[in-house]
Amino acid sequence: MTDTKAAFTLDDTFTSTEATALVNRLRATFRTGRTKPLAWRRQQLTRLRDLLTDNRAAIADALYADLRKNRAEADAMEINTTIVEIDDYLEHLEEWTAPQPATVTVPGVPGSTARTVFDPLGVALVISAWNYPVNLLLVPVAGALAAGNAVVIKPADYAAHTSALLAELLPAYLDTDATAVVEGGAPETTVLLEQHFDHIFYTGNGTVGRIVMTAAAKNLTPVVLELGGKSPVFVDRDADIATVAQRLAQTKFANAGQTCVAPDYVLTDPDTATELEAALVVALKGQFGEDPQTSDAYGRIINERHFDRLSALLDSGRTVTGGQTDRADTYIAPTVLAEVRPDEPVMQEEIFGPILPILTVADLDEAITFINERDKPLALYAFTEDNTTKRRLAAETSSGGLNFGLPMHHLAVPTLPFGGVGQSGMGNYHGRYSIETFSHRKAVLDVPLS
Ligand code: NAD
């Protein structure tokens, strides 16, 4: 019998029978009420935190092997960001899960009370993407646990070293009656998606997002889809260009551009574009030196499939800097392309790699039209000092998040919800928003009988 296994690794078979037994086992635990007390949730969150602090070096090694993430980036963007979320739950768990009193206006019987109660949903499935394979897996898992759920955890298969390490560590730290890890790719996830979950939290691309949502529909299971898209950057002519270039270099090229909220392309007027080209050359040199391939601070493309996909995008526009590739090392240099036209290959899909196209527009009106003619992005960025420009971008565009001045960092503010809209996803999480995502908001009205 395999139905008490807490981790299915790539060496195991994982059939529908095993998946059903696994979900039934976790649901049986959930029904005992074991996951609901705040003490259990607190204990699980603390154990998850211990996992991260006890195994910092091993996690950093796995991330290096998968993505050549340097130690500082692994610490800052994977481990510490997850710890910050966990600490936030530990600090606010009572407050965020407490029933919220409501004013009773109906039925108006004296002595009536009303409140909203956060009920855990049951057994959640969390499916992660490979680009931040620790954070994107464990932050939603922490949210599901904080909300009092049992969880099936599916790490990203492309980040194979990290997946294997987490499959080993998670059962050693978490309550294995209420959590389980299933490693694997499409076949294993397909088997999981045939099961009846109470929530599915998926991070990845929109094609698989549709598969997840279709499978969820069969059981009326709620989903959060954390997808991607082309996140534009508007650079106003009043912005300090050295600062813009430095912040774009810092964010766009982290993790070799493989970040869901990475700036995808720049929209600016022709004069500012010329200035920005030169400033980006300086900023990139400052960040990664003369030869980024030898820089410790620069990552690699996850695999050859993505390397080939990205290499085909390098011919668009005029190369300002970069363009060098090394397939054996899955290396693509930080690349800036200018005079890019909207119909060129690099503008047809989310880049998800270290290539930054600059497109010119006449003014803010044209930029807003350009943005609104395309799918709603996961993030919209603007560098401007002008409050009218900020107000107009906020009022006249739709995106998962809107960030002025420092791309990607809204993601690291746990008091903000993180998620997409339209083609960039649905639902959101982080901090108290994760509690809401993984709970049912139950309306309770209590009317006295006499
Ligand atoms: P991926 O290939 O790791 O896929 C994501 C998950 O889906 C993996 O766990 C994988 O095993 C599973 N999967 C793959 N094919 C499947 C199938 N046919 N059926 C069921 N499951 C399947 O990651 P990806 O999709 O290449 O990730 C990149 C995309 O994810 C980009 O669009 C990026 O913007 C987006 N993303 C979004 C966020 C966010 O938080 N919004 C974060 C990271 C990445």
Automatic annotation (TrEMBL):
Signal peptide: none annotated. Keywords: NAD, Oxidoreductase. Pfam families: Aldedh. One of its GO terms (cellular component) is cytoplasm. CDD domains: ALDH_F3-13-14_CALDH-like. This is Aldehyde dehydrogenase. The active site is at 226, 260. Belongs to the aldehyde dehydrogenase family. It comes from Streptomyces collinus. Residues 15-444 form the Aldehyde dehydrogenase domain. GO terms for molecular function: aldehyde dehydrogenase (NAD+) activity. GO terms for biological process: aldehyde metabolic process.
